[in-house]
Amino acid sequence: MQPEALWMVPGAMLRWQGLSEAWRGAIVRLLGVALLLLVLFARDWSEMVLHWWNISTYNHILLVPLILAWLVWQRRSELFKLEPVVWWPGLILLTGTAFVWLLGAFSGLNLARQAGAVGMAAASVPLFAGPQVAKGLLFPLLYMVFLVPCGEELVTALQMITAKITISLVHASDIPAHIDGVFIDTPVGLFEVAEACSGVKFLIAMIAFGALMANVCFLSWTRRAALLAACIIVPILANGVRAWGTIYAAQIIGVERAAGIDHIIYGWVFFGIVIAVIIGLAWRFFDRPVDDTFIDAQAIVEDSVLSRMASLRIGSGKALMAFLAITLGAQGWAYAATRLSADLPRTVALPKVAGWTRVDYQPKVWWEPRASGAGHRLLGSYADRAGRRVDVFFALYAAQAEGQEAGGFGQGALTPGTDWAWQAPAAFEGAHGERLLAAGRISRVALTWYRTGDLLTGSNARLKLAVMSDRLALRERTTMLLIVSAEEGAGGPADRALRDFMQAAGPVDAWMDRIGRVN
């Protein structure tokens, strides 16, 4: 062993022995509980780490654990002036976060599962260290939310916003262009504001950066709010400018060269400049002193409310037993619920529709929705006397679980990796409507309904809530997915053909029940 290492080990031991007995116990408890949570919820933590590593949208999260460690380190001198206790109301927080995890497990919503796993880790601090220590670590505990890989839910809205900003700038540049949803047609070609161009990657990274900067550099809540607003608004506007710059450059140097410039220059240099501009503008308004301790231990100790709260103590052994009961109970309930499976009919078939005849399925560009894990799938076409064609896809599920979710990512009308791309939302009462485009010229309108029990909805969120309710009650129910679609120009406007077909088919809920043979 090198001399430096020999010197460091005794120093570390001295610092450990210099801590109070209460703090040594609290650190051991927190490390032990953290290890237990990593083992019990290994699947959720491993999935999060894989997202951080493999998905570029979440690469910035790889820095968050280091940031959290730094935030705690900055507060250490003041934290050690506080007395950690085992606090029984922390079990309420733990139960709440475990319930969030449970709902995610019931519905197959990974976001809820992962948020619950992170929440349980945060809740263990007030439980095993007490409210005063939790107050001292309040910002790091709240900052743990950025460990959860989320933000993809904003892609569609950001695509539309970026497209509107871009077309406004394109017109202001005297470039003749036409916009249809997220597609912009210009003299040199058709441009798509794709998911990768939505700017969500930079936006969520900027929000995480802005929250950190607001806490570290500012004391004024007004200045913090202003910085966070800038970290939301500026990236969205900048992304519109980036997309416009690509289209403008393409008019001069060609589409292929402009796309290369977009990914290399605008993708890195441009947004690097945006970050530098935000920091530069905020610099002169920094109001936190350089030597600030971030927390005031004396003020926390003198807080009478926190003192009364800290008196609600429990033995560490009892707290650990309750911790295990809550976490293992949640996992046991989830295991029992996810094993539920309703009986399915042996066969299903698309019914007759008055005024419409079953015909061979012959789309101009192959379109087939995805329904992974469904027990039955049907895909067929109907035509009327005017030559209008409507395509119908139906899927019947015995249960909703991992790998068999009617509203899961990549499921439904738009299958990733195919010729079809999302174009714009489509309005249709009670359904989730969307316009799709293939080969830059074939447009399709798709309407989606979900049905389980008495619920009929076009909302994936409402379906998730219904599934959660069934799982909580350990109730077995089938889930049905119906997608009715039509190509534009196949005998008339797709919207009109779909409305006429659905009117002829009758009430959607009864029609789906008849196909799925639900009594």
UniProtKB/TrEMBL annotation:
Origin superkingdom: Bacteria
EC number(s) stated in the UniProt entry for this protein: 3.4.22.-
Compartments in which it is found: Cell membrane
Main location: membrane
First and last residue of the signal peptide: none
Residue spans crossing the bilayer: 22-41, 53-73, 85-103, 115-134, 200-218, 225-245, 265-286, 319-336
Cell wall biogenesis/degradation among keywords: no
The protein, known as: Exosortase A
Lineage of origin: Bacteria, Pseudomonadati, Pseudomonadota, Alphaproteobacteria, Sphingomonadales
Gene (UniProt): xrtA
